[in-house]
C-alpha cells in the first residue's frame, strides 16, 4: 500500500515538474492568434500589427488564424475548446463577451467561465453621423427632428446586435426617443446608404468611416467619448451636446482558454503591453481611429464584467434576441 502511494506521489511530482518546465520555457513553438472575423477588417488589422511585435519579443512567430462567422461565436468557441497551454489565444470583442451572452439563449461557450483574460487590445469610439443634407446641424436639432416625428427618422447599423445597433438602443433609452432602426449585413453597405441619403443617420465606428468623414460625405454630430477626439477636434462630445453620461465603443481584448497558467498569462500580457506602447504601432492604430487599450489581466476582467452588466440591461430593455 505504501509502495503504491509512493508511485502515485512520484508520478504527480513528475507531472508537476514537467508542467513547470513547460511553463518556464513558454513559448517553445509558434503561437496561434485566432481572429473571429474575416481578413482585412479592423479586428484583423489590430491583430496583425500587434502579432508582429509580440512575435519579436516572444522569440516565436505569432500566426494569425481567421475563423469568421456567427457573430464571432465560431472563433470564440475554438479558443475556448483549445488546450490551455498558451499556444492558441485570440481576439474576443464586445460582441463576444458582452453582447452575445444577453442576446442568445444558448451559446457554445460561456463568456464568464471559458476564457482566461490576458489584456485589452483597443477600442473604436462610436460617433453619431448624418447625411450632409440632413437639416439638423447639431445634436439638439437632431433630437428635435426625432421628437417631432417619432419613428420616422432612420438610423442604420451593421446588423442586429452589433455594437452600432446596441449603441443606438442605448441612445434611444437615454434620450427617451423613437428612432427607426435599419439593419444591414455589415457596416460597408450601411455606410454606402448613409452617404447616398437612403438612411438619415447612423452610429459609426471610426476605422471604416474616418475617410468619409474627412471627405465630407457624412457629417458627425457628436462623439460618444468622455473627451473630444484629437482626430475630430471640432466635434463635441455627447455630454457637451446635451446627452451626459453617454459613452459607446466597439472594443477588443485578448483571451485564451480557461485555466491558462498564470506565468503564461503574465508573459503574454507583458509582451502585449509592450506592443501596444510601441510608438510606431500606437501611431498607426490612432491614425485609424483606434485607441490602444492597455490593461492588466485583472483590469480587463473587471472591465468586461462592467460591460456585460451595462449592455445586458440595454439589450433586455430593447428585447434584442438573435436565436
From TrEMBL:
Belongs to the UPF0065 (bug) family. The keyword Signal applies. This is Bug family tripartite tricarboxylate transporter substrate binding protein. Residues 1-22 form the signal peptide. Pfam families: TctC (PF03401). It comes from the Bacteria. It comes from Polaromonas jejuensis. PANTHER family: BLR1237 PROTEIN, TRICARBOXYLATE-BINDING PROTEIN. The keyword Signal applies. Keywords: Signal.
